[in-house]
Amino acid sequence: MSSSLKTPGFASGWFVACFSDQLAPGEARPVRFFGQDLVLFRSESGEPVMLDAHCPHMGAHLGHGGKVRGDRVVCPFHAWEFGPTGDCVEIPYADKIPKKAKVACWPLVEKNGFVFVWYDRAKDPPSWQIPDMPEFGAPGWTAWSHGELEVKTHPREIVENVVDVGHFMPVHGTDVSTIENVFDAHKATQINSGTAYPIGGGHDHYSLEATYHGPAWQLTDWKGFLQARLVNCHTPIDEDRLLLRFGVLIQETDDVAKTELIAQKYVENMREGFFQDIAIWENLSFRERPILCAGDGPLMKLRQWYQEFYQPDSERVAALEARRA
Ligand code: FES
Ligand SMILES: [Fe+2]
Q1: Does domain 13-119 sit in CATH 3.40.50.1820?
Q2: CA-55 nearest atom, ligand 1
Q3: Which residue has the CA at smallest separation from atom 3 of ligand 1?
């Protein structure tokens, strides 16, 4: 592990490029993640693709005005066409395609209602997978209700919430009765129970198990007034900003309108909860060596776990596996 947490760049892992319902077939759009300009598009048959943004010809941004044709994105400047691997496959006014006419292609996986992108500091392939959620698309469960916020903070601040038991009452007004943290290879789980006081009033006695699958996608199994699955995830935009996304699936009740209203309320509560955290995150001065006391939760263990995602794949896997033992 690096001796400093101020490693430049980003952790390696699966990150959310978008919710599936945010990208329609035939749509192309510009995105900026990991300090890079990218184009995200969905082929007419429905496959998501993410490529480096700038055309190798004369540098136009493929996401600003680029059109999808079949499984290709067409550059808005001179209409060169790029396939899902990033290779130029058609130039409308030339028979021969230059060898170097290609852009980098990013590994994507679509599951659970998300398009995930694999980011790797060493450009290694994925060393684990996001698990399937049996509730997604299953009868008796709603579709995702979701929201997003751009936040000026380091991703580590968000992840540290899972061990930071001391902040739940002062920041969120949540009364935590039990909490346990388990670190297992690329997963970090918080098992927690208590009483939440939703913003709209009332209270909810809950128990939850919330697992980070890698550094950026956390899935919560929430048992309270209703059964719910919550997702909290983030994708770095650059070294100073990230896109925070959150969503909820809930078990349907007989009253469809009421179920939808409850799902919306969950999302509003998540948004409000994040606003409470953001007020802290955006104004704090990072303490690499905080002065901790009994009851603060295993913060340094969490930081050590998170820091492993900055290691090259082989070292990371060995370190994460060793932690499992
Ligand atoms: S800049 Fe893209 S085709 Fe010319
Ligand atoms: Fe929080």
Answers
A1: no
A2: 2
A3: 78
